[in-house]
Batch of 2 targets.
Target 1
Amino acid sequence: MGNLNFESNIFTLPNSALVVNGSYEAEYEGGYKFLQWETEGGVSVSNSTAQKTNVTVTDSGKLRAVGSAEVMQYSYDDSAEESSTFQKAGKMVAVRFTPLFLGNLTKARFYISSDYNYAFNVRVMDENLSDIIAPFAQTPSSTGWFEVDFSAYNVSVREDFYIAMEWLTDYYPCLGEDESSPDERSFDWNGTAWKIRSYEDYMIRAVVESEVPLRPIGIISCTPLSSYISGGRNVTVSGSITPLRVGAEVDVTYIRPGESMVVRKTLTNATGEYTDTFMPDKVGEWKVKASWAGDEDYEGSTSYPEEFTVSKGTSSIYLFYFYPSTITIGSSINLTGYLLPQRFATVNLEYSLDEGGTWITFASVNTTSDGDYSYVWTPTLGNYKVRASWEGDEVCEGSTSWERSLTVEETEETFRIYVDYRAFDITVKCNSTLSDFSFNDTKMMISFQLTGISETVGYCNVSFPKELLGGPYRIRINDSPPDTSSEASNDKMCLYFTFNFNSTCNVEIIGETVIPEFPNIVLPLFMVATLFAIILQKMKRNLRLLSWLN
Amino acid sequence: MVEETGTAKRKFYIKKRTRYIVVIAMSKLSSWLITIIFFSVFANIVFIPSVSSKKVIGSDTVTLYPIADSYVNESSPDTNYGNYTWLGIECNSYHRYAYIMFDLSSLPPDATIIDANLWLTLTSIGGTGEWGVHIGAHYCSNNSWNETEITWNNKPDFEPNPTMSRVFWIVFLPSTDWWNITADVQTAFSLDKKLTEVMMFEEPQTYSGYASFRSREVSGVELEIEYTTRPIYTVQFESTKIQKSPQTWAI
């Protein structure tokens, strides 16, 4: 805690150095309220109670500054002034302090670089840069550290606070700046907004006296791993409690751009660290801070809010290839895919029958939390291009998948009928699912069932040998006649009919004649045999007459 | 000068030598841009300034200047460059090495050498190294060479491995840079108190490089040595709070 100025070398404590045998000037700065020096080994001091003293080194050893922890001076500069700042009247600069324990702010110290004899306003502000006490003017009486007493104001500090210097006279006085190892705790007020100064520490310090009972603050840190988050992606924040606290409950508070909050709970691990991953649901400037309630030994604390920016992110939606890519009418196909970033969303499934000229949404499905979606689709006849798309949401742009091709073909089935060892083929083409085919010679009827999509137009083309079933024909679909046309060749009949689907349709084709049970070949054979017998009979009679005449 | 907005500043001093170099370079903005473009094209910019500081508190520092320097040139193996105002080094189809000699006898005989840096001022540099070019300082134990006689053909041998090598990528010229040669100075101080360093490119055969430094004739070479004649100890620095009760804390 604190710094040691050892022969003009500034050491942050604890530290070590190689030192040549000899005497050197040393001064304890910042940190505890100095009480005395302690030494070990070949190190000795000329005055053990003087904050600035001579140290003699005759061998290796230790030099220890002993202080009171009840009064703490917070400083982020190293005492070495390397430049200075001076502002127009009304402007101010400030330093943010993080107290290590609950206490009262008793003093502030300003390093006046030059032009001291001018008043400036002293301001004390809370973590939101709102004044805790009314600003009051002070006039330094010399250059160097200028002390301002707050003991009458009873300012209790627990969270971060700011001490600011507001100029009342243009450019006077000058405030010292430390340019080495800036802590990013110094800020400028330009009249409308505060802006961090990254390249120097303003030389302003705070002295805090502890309250009773004395309990140090377990300081919690909280840092987003990235300052810029693309919408739909997670932000991970991490931090730790110092001193190390294992299993401590940490509240991580995410503050939306509109100031509403999300509080998530997590625990510190064995190394006292914690992480939390969260997906912001809004675009804009977010803040995140962590807090813990404290325990028996340490006061709880809240970290300084860190900012991160969420910008609208891109998304990708995927539609898997169809397999097979050609199906028969009436078959179903499972459309599956996923959306990245993974999220709940509504996905529109679209098809085009004109090579992408016009897209028609045929279904909308919801994704799971993993971004997956699926849909069982029974398309009608056609050559399809299919794609998936979503419109995006507050943090993600929408996207459209690659197009996938799908061909739906008509049904064509041929049924072979055997009659007296003769085969007859009946072929049925249709745009629906075909089932329960039968041929009934008694009823002289071909019948089958078609299953399609209700309220669509179905068609059916049935061809068969006229010999098997002769016309004229009557066609009944669910006992109603359809629109029919027919085409006949010498021995074949083709019947084409259309109808409106009413889910399942029973089709009956009834003829007037059916193939006879007597096979066609038998009659000619019988006639030839009869003729042959008559001829033989006549030949015999002629032979007997001839022999009688002879 | 007073600015109307923002923080106006008064600089009290410039602490470091390297900062001075950058300031000069920035004042020549146009030549800066040309330098960047030129060196970007030929893959050789450079100079990341670093500054040495005392390693041991209470030590002494001395700056020595060379008693001899020259470079040798493979393409003109019998030529001596001892009176030149620059030291050329080159890595190409032929090579150039720079030889620099210091006399360490002015140091106290019981001195312990803590740190030693060879400072050189680069006035030109170029090359085709993939990630910049490397210039190394090599120890040479043979101090028998003479500034007005040394040539490629009679140059003494030196250690093949550099004591320290620096990479040069983007450089604003002129640029003063340093090589830490503490080990070489310690060795030389324990022997004949003469130190010879050889500067050369460390590039592989497929790369090339050239550079020139100011020579001692124009006060371009220094050897800064940190030393002490007294014992050196390790001192631990700590701070602690006074122990008042079991409820007090350690921060």
Target 2
Amino acid sequence: MSIGAAAARDFERVLGPENVISDPPRLRSYECDGLTGYRVVPALVLLPRTAEQVAASVRVCAARGIPFVARGAGTGLSGGALPVADGVVISLQRLRRVLEVDPVDRRAVLEPGVTNLDITRAAAPYGLYYAPDPSSQQVCTIGGNVAENSGGAHCLKYGFTTNHVLALEVVLADGSVVTLGGDTGEQLGPDLRGVFVGSEGTVGIATKITVRLLRTPETVRTLLADFGSIEAAGEVVSDIVAAGIVPAAVEMMDTLAIEAAEEAVHAGYTRGVPAALVVELDGPAEECDEQFERVRAICDKHGCTRLHVAGDTEERAAIWRGRKSAFAAVGRISPDYFVQDGVVPRTRLAEVLGRIAAMGSDAGLRVANVFHAGDGNLHPLVLYDAAAGETERAETLSGQIAELCVELGGSLSGEHGIGTDKACSMPKMFSEVDLAVMGRVRSAFDPAGLCNPGKLLPTPRLCGERPGPFRVHPLEEAGVIERL
Amino acid sequence: MTSHTDTPTTTLRPADLAEAAAALADTTGRVLIRGAGTAADWAGQPEPPDLVLATAALSGVRAHNPADMTVEVWAGTPLRELNRVLAEHGQRVALDPARVALGATVGGLVATADSGPGALVFGSARDLVIGATVVLADGTVARTGGHVIKNVAGYDLAKLVHGCYGTLALLAQVVLRLHPLPEASVTVRLTGPLTDAAEAAGRVLASPLEPVALEWSDGGLLLRLDGGAAAVDARTRRLANLLGLGAVRLSAAEADDAWDEHAALVGDRPATGTAVLRVGARPSRLPGLLGELTAELGASRVTAGLATGVGTVTLPVDAVARAHQLIHRVGGTSVLRARPAGATAPGWGPAPSAIAVLRAVRDELDPSGRLGAGRFAPWL
């Protein structure tokens, strides 16, 4: 689709012709993010190099009423960076300077295209690191992390992106530039920085991000423990929490997820066991050692069948390689898969996993589970074969799992975001009024609705004309349109 | 719901969500939301209200899930009382502003973006609130977040009420994440001036000892370590070695007194003719800034969070405007706390760059600006 030659010329004037992509083959590489089931080719892709160019590009969009979608590394799993056909994608990949690392005040100032891991790399010489660690941290960008309020395995103890961002320089939908937050956690008036973080690119584009850095913990202890059942592993997590221990991370994998991970990276997990638990503690040596012994005792008490303590950083890295590769590794045991991201109160883990297993067996599909057990954030992987015509069944099951999490008192998404993927499920979690109020907040930032439209909040176009719980679009049911 | 019309201002005390919604839907005019009244004269001077909406009857625990470490409460619940209940389960809301001891409510602490020394590790209320029910100026009831700690679904409206000072919306219900009470807690005091304390704080922060609070006040640096009993003992010895001569491990009673004194400097009513200002600045700039406020404007009763960058000072009322300017000049934040009766000290310094967004949000959620009018004067 085209947005007109005059608009294209405006963008070229702002960015230089070489930084405006318009040829279809190159445009296609921006047609989706990590949620590859949804694809839209944008009219143009813009490649600004500076914050000023981002603002100037947005001003062109504002003047001409052109929708825009900001994009980092495109690793998002909810279709949050899905382009708009008659709009532009603004890629932040060329804004990738680490502007400042301040070891005294323990903070870093970053352009949005800096990768998550590069923040820690820049901080490491000072004995500091950036805490949120999504599994995609080698490639995902801090701008995307801010948009999605990304978490990661260690957010149980250390919190999410929102807890680590001090200040944001933001280009608003009218092209104006403001700063949200400031030099400390203190704020002048309502916490707009907190509203921005996790707004999925719908209220502006962050062009400069100040994050807190933490001191690298003195000690890290990691163990991998096998259990005869998910329930037993779940009880271990409960007992750890009841003991007043806040581990840095508690991760669980089931048989299928372990099989996939071992197939891919040979990380030393035990094939065939019903549940494996990764528990990591960090902090001052004395605290860590004391708690570690208690965690070991809790594992033994619940019939741990094998307990492997990482003896050195290499072994620790192997355990995490197994865990963090689980998503991609599932490709080894299934041609296609959907990832879900629902959250349940931790005490309902066993219940929800039982129901997911039953739903999977009813649908005739396998579901692998790898999840953040400490905070109840599930990542069920619905395995299917598109070539065998299983896509629709898998997508339905996947959506049902997310909605089941809401029924059990949880959330549709713990860290991947709502994006395009779950926008139509939002009425399961929030009332029409709740969503309308969120819509009013969005309008305050972006009255013209140009900033990443169609994401996060359900729209009639995406979800059918009638408000209320998500139903298949009537035209979809009739086979006139399809959800790609 | 009871109402009192014996004064020109009506006071409504809704006791549930429906009454809270009706209190706003069925009325017009300016509304002042009042919790325990511990921050009644903070920030901008409220314009005389037509209606006082008291949250005292919106009080109590709605659901405590110890195993999930979450609690849902009515916003009018005093945090002190909530923490007393939670302590029976070995848990707490890890929020420790000075005025908690004065009976401040959960809603009031959120609405004023308050925090105490523990913000070093636990952040402020924004970092602990995981869900909320708010009532807009027209009586619209909206929910945000949920009951799970990890949740990114939808806009986080709780962030909008954090620091809203009774504008934008009434906070009716709050879901909070909880932390375990530490098995042991030890405070070490190092006597010395602010500049020496800042140097010592730098060494502690570069060490792996992970203090949960690090505050200078009244000629001494207070450092607190939380953790397991034996481990905290060992860490305390390491801390004392690191700090060198002059570092003293306080007994439990001494530690309580020391922190009470710190809280008094932050939270006591100021003497006639003076006002309290809360200051935020990049931690490395804070000692110099506080020194400047002391030398040039006669600031006293200084507290300094040397890692959080948050401090408080008591100033002559007529120095407040100048203090806002000085703090702003180094990129800091300032807000007036405790305005003496009749004084006209400005609540805020220069407006933040996002003031247009703030106005737009206010216009969307409270188009007539009836909630908390004056709190952000002269910006809003």
